[in-house]
Amino acid sequence: MAEECVTKNKKKQCIQIDCDMPQEKADGSVKARNYDEVESNNEVLDDDACCVQLEQIKNTLVHVTADFENFKKRTEKEKIEWIVAGKKQFILDVLEIVDDFDRALQEHKKKKDSNLDAWLQGFELIGSALYKLLEKHNVYEIKNTTTFDPELHEALTQVESDEHTSGNIVMVLQKGFMFDDVVLRPAKVSVAK
Predict the structure, then answer these.
(1) Distance CA 191, CA 193 (A)
(2) In this predicted structure, what is the pLDDT of residue 19?
(3) Which of 152, 161, 139, 134 is CA-nearest to residue 189?
(4) CATH number of the domain bearing residue 187
């Protein structure tokens, strides 16, 4: 039903008009609406009823508009969350390679072979480029602190240590990383008893 408001003789009248879709016949053809038929279904409403219906329509429009805006915001937020989740998984996979790279570099640094110096310099340049790439995508290494923080660290072992007080980090076993101020992977550490 649609509503049409008309002012006649300084009195506002609202007429409800039956706006149903044309009827489809059994053979698939569509029967056109007869305007005489529509006129016979019209109903004249007084001012108060017209205003009430108009307010109801306005309220419905406001609610539908608000629902649609909320839907748009929600879908945009979900889209961003999916992108971040995909990016996070990719970064976690890359970090496994970074770990292998760091371990290999540390092993070769221990050997102190003069023939490997040029190779080590090239290796360090590649490592530096890798870390710059991570920083470009807001991935940062968790800087080592002496005190264990359960928000940033994961304690894998506890060891006796005369050099460290209880609860302090003795050794970092695997680097931790932050992604957009969120812990992507906690640093795996060994803690003093």
Answers:
(1) 6
(2) 46
(3) 152
(4) 2.30.22.10
